[in-house]
Specification:
heterodimer; A: alpha/beta; five-stranded parallel sheet; 13 helices; 51% helix; B: alpha/beta; 12 helices; 14 strands
Chain lengths: 333, 322
């Protein structure tokens, strides 16, 4: 009750500066660029959806600020378990536009071979772990990966991002319990509308977690909170639950626009850089779309692979069936 | 090496493999100081410490999900579910995550978790400590399902499971944990290979896990009546050793399929369908299933629920004399 919502960005860059921004200039620029690229990519995806080329698309806004802010505060070797609204985190963790669009459109070259819904891509090495279609299961995975990091003595953290529907699931309860019991280096970031009752922050205290409440539309506040939670986790002080409240008057405002004044104030950005960067992003998106068109649809050949490491006889047999069927279909044409 | 019970054999294999591979982590409810509900993990905490042997909370969803996380990071978790009957709260993680992570990430991630799961009736456990739900696991693409029938096989199959790259549900027939001893070596038994435990000419008796002893007993009773049975112990349910099954059927032309699970939708039905598809021209009699009933396991009458040697022998006779 009465917990203060942490906010950093304000119309006056000086007062933001005074609030002790933890990101260095390199990460600040990367954050701004990620948000800008996310907006351009989002616009493209919405258009593709309206044109009927993508059947299912969940826009990144208004999740982009918290998604990018959290991801940018991570270090190499940290693991990120995203929700399905985390295109910004995908880009922040090194995901390529080409791969994102190939996945979105089910094109050949899709890193996950056309198996997942649009926006459910994956990057290896823990950078962005393939999200499932089930709410909240990744909370428990982050606790497990963080336990593994602790057991191996690796100074890294695991971050899970999820929404309010996950809070109602069993994995929220078991995941937080597991994390607290073993005091693992995990961070749980829940985007809410700020209407949870009782507030999420109070529940976190009940589980015995450090809990933070942050303006989820303020990418710098989210980055600061995750960076602080990360430092605490690395120091062996256990997991943190972060409630990032999304909504309010800023809902329609684009997250990059909100950060713009501050990066300009720092001397990291200006109108000329903006114009060049936006043009480069738009070109990259257009190139990627062209590449996707040239590549054609993802091959059906991968449908029966990667179930087990090696195909057991049943799948070998089913692969042969599928090939026969495809030859027959081709013959009919 | 030595003559061990199945519980001791599993313990021995865990110990050996933990020495061999420091990525192996044993976890579960009371697997540490208590040594597991059936004593299978006894002594491991003392030998390997609490960073290798971890007591978890009493929540199977948390247990399976934690094991998934450990495996994603590159460790080799062996999670013990106290009774298979408790697995359902972990089923979400098992079906949606453990089994699908390799596929949905196109091989970027994998989940080499071994779930050790005591199963089956015969210890007076009532309907919540006695079930045999292997068909549920067999119906999940991506899961290898193993059911050994003695200590030597349990140890050898567990070594394979721990050295593999995929999730394995390792069904341990708990009523056999302390029934008899076998010679346990460091042999690795490949997954997906059945074992012909008795050779005959007239009928093929197919069993696995907990029902193998009753099948062998029935084969002796049938032999006394002049019917010689092959007894094929499947050892792995998924992937099935199809070659061994067809080899035996093409010799005998008659099959009795034994499983203590409820009949409808069970694994014996999968075997029967496989024979209908692939062995029809060899079959000289209808295939018979000897199974549990389509009921929960009744506490005071589990002896009537379980397929015993008499029921199996009667089926052998019907099939042989068709």
């Amino acid at each position: 009750m009465g917990r203060q919502l942490l906010s950093l960005l304000s119309a006056d860059p000086e007062s933001t500066e005074a609030a002790n921004v933890l990101l260095d200039d390199e990460r600040l620029s990367a954050l701004y660029e990620t948000l800008t690229l996310t907006r351009i990519l989002d616009d493209t995806c919405v258009r593709l959806h309206q044109d009927g080329r993508v059947g299912f698309f969940v826009p990144s806004l208004p999740a982009a600020a918290s998604s990018a802010g959290a991801a940018i505060a991570l270090h190499d070797g940290d693991w990120l378990f995203p929700s399905f609204r985390d295109a910004a985190a995908y880009l922040a963790r090194g995901g390529r536009i080409d791969d994102f669009l190939a996945q979105l459109l089910g094109a050949d070259g899709d890193l996950v071979k056309g198996r997942q819904l649009p926006g459910h891509g994956s990057l290896p090495g823990g950078r962005f772990v393939a999200p499932s279609g089930v709410a909240g299961t990744q909370i428990q995975h982050a606790a497990g990966v963080a336990l593994a990091m602790q057991l191996r003595g690796d100074a890294q953290v695991a971050l899970a991002i999820f929404g309010p529907s996950a809070v109602a699931q069993g994995a929220f309860h078991t995941g937080l319990n597991t994390a607290v019991r073993h005091q693992v280096p995990a961070i749980f970031l829940c985007r809410t509308l700020g209407t949870e009752h009782p507030p999420l922050a109070e529940r976190g205290s009940g589980y015995g977690l450090a809990t933070e409440l942050v303006d989820g539309m303020d990418c710098l506040a989210v980055a600061n909170t995750v960076a602080t939670a990360r430092a605490r986790a690395i120091d062996g002080d256990g997991p943190t639950l972060i409630e990032a409240v999304v909504g309010g008057a800023e809902l329609e405002q684009d997250a990059a626009g909100r950060l713009r004044g501050f990066v300009e104030h720092r001397g990291l950005w200006d109108a000329e850089r903006e114009e060049a960067f936006v043009r480069r992003c738009q070109d990259r998106v257009l190139d990627a779309l062209e590449a996707v068109d040239n590549a054609g649809p993802v091959s059906a050949g991968g449908v029966l692979q990667d179930v087990w490491a090696d195909q057991p006889w049943m799948l070998q047999e089913q692969t042969a069936r599928l090939q026969e069927q495809r030859l027959k279909d081709d013959g009919d044409v | 090496m030595s003559e061990l019970t199945m519980a001791e054999a599993v313990n021995q294999a865990l110990r050996d493999e933990m020495h061999r591979d420091d990525r192996i982590i044993v976890l579960g409810e009371e697997v540490g100081a208590l040594g597991g509900l059936f004593g299978v993990t006894e002594g491991l905490l003392q030998e390997f410490g609490d960073r290798r042997v971890i007591d978890t909370l009493a929540a199977e969803g948390g247990l399976v999900g934690t094991a998934v996380g450990l495996a994603l990071y590159g460790l080799r978790p062996v999670a013990e579910i106290q009774f298979v009957d408790f697995v359902w709260s972990g089923f979400e993680q098992l079906v949606s995550e453990m089994a699908k992570l390799r596929y949905r990430s196109a091989g970027q991630y994998s989940c080499p978790v071994v779930l050790r799961v005591p199963y089956g009736a015969g210890v007076g456990g009532g309907m919540y400590q006695s079930q045999s739900p292997e068909a549920h696991f067999c119906h999940i693409p991506g899961i290898t399902v193993v059911a050994p029938a003695d200590g030597a096989d349990a140890a050898g199959l567990l070594r394979s499971a721990l050295r593999g790259e995929d999730p394995v549900v390792f069904l341990e027939p708990k009523r056999l944990y302390r029934e008899g001893r076998t010679h346990v070596s460091d042999e690795v038994v490949p997954l997906g290979s059945a074992r012909l435990r008795r050779e005959g000419t007239d009928v093929t008796l197919v069993a696995y896990g907990s029902t193998v002893p009753a099948a062998l007993e029935a084969a002796e009773l049938a032999a006394a009546r002049g019917i010689q049975a092959d007894v094929l112990d499947l050892r792995t349910l998924v992937p099935l050793d199809i070659a061994a099954l067809l080899r035996s059927i093409s010799k005998t032309g008659r099959a009795v399929l034994v499983s203590e699970a409820p009949r409808t939708g069970g694994y014996a039905g999968e075997l029967a369908a496989t024979l209908a598809e692939r062995a029809m021209l060899h079959l000289e009699a209808p295939v018979e299933r000897v199974t549990g009933f389509d009921t929960p396991v009744p506490y005071a009458h589990e002896d009537k629920y379980l397929p015993d040697a008499d029921r199996i022998t009667a089926a052998i006779e019907r099939v042989a004399n068709f």
